[in-house]
Specification:
Shape: extended
Helix content: 40-55%
Number of helices: 4
Largest sheet: none
Oligomer: single chain
Order of helices and strands: HHHH
Number of strands: 0
Structural class: mainly alpha
C-alpha cells in the first residue's frame, strides 16, 4: 500500500501563482512576512547539535498522534519543540 506524501515543497513563485489562481489553503487575511534580505542569507548557516542521545521516552498517545498527523519527521519536530523550550528557559 502506497501512501501519498503529506509534505509538499513549492517555490515562492509557485506559491504566489497558486494563490493567484485561488488554489492555496492560506487564509485571505493571512499576513505576509517581510523579506529577510540578501545580507541575512549570505551569512545564514545551519547549526546542528553536537550529538544525539538515544532515549526511551513514554509520551501520551495523543501527543505522538498529533505530531504524526503533520507528516514525516514527527520525531525531529518533537525534538525541535523540546529544543525551543530549553532555549527559552536558559
Amino acid at each position: 500500500m502506497s501512501e501519498k506524501p503529506t509534505i509538499a515543497r513549492h517555490s515562492l513563485s509557485a506559491v504566489r501563482a497558486m494563490r493567484a489562481r485561488g488554489e492555496d489553503k492560506t487564509r485571505a487575511d493571512a499576513p505576509e512576512a517581510e523579506s529577510l534580505g540578501a545580507a541575512f542569507w549570505k551569512s545564514a548557516h545551519v547549526r546542528m547539535p553536537a550529538g544525539k542521545t538515544s532515549v526511551h521516552l513514554r509520551v501520551d498517545t495523543d501527543i505522538v498522534e498529533w505530531f504524526k498527523t503533520r507528516g514525516k519527521g514527527h520525531l525531529t519536530r518533537m525534538n525541535a519543540v523540546l529544543r525551543a523550550y530549553v532555549d527559552a528557559h536558559k
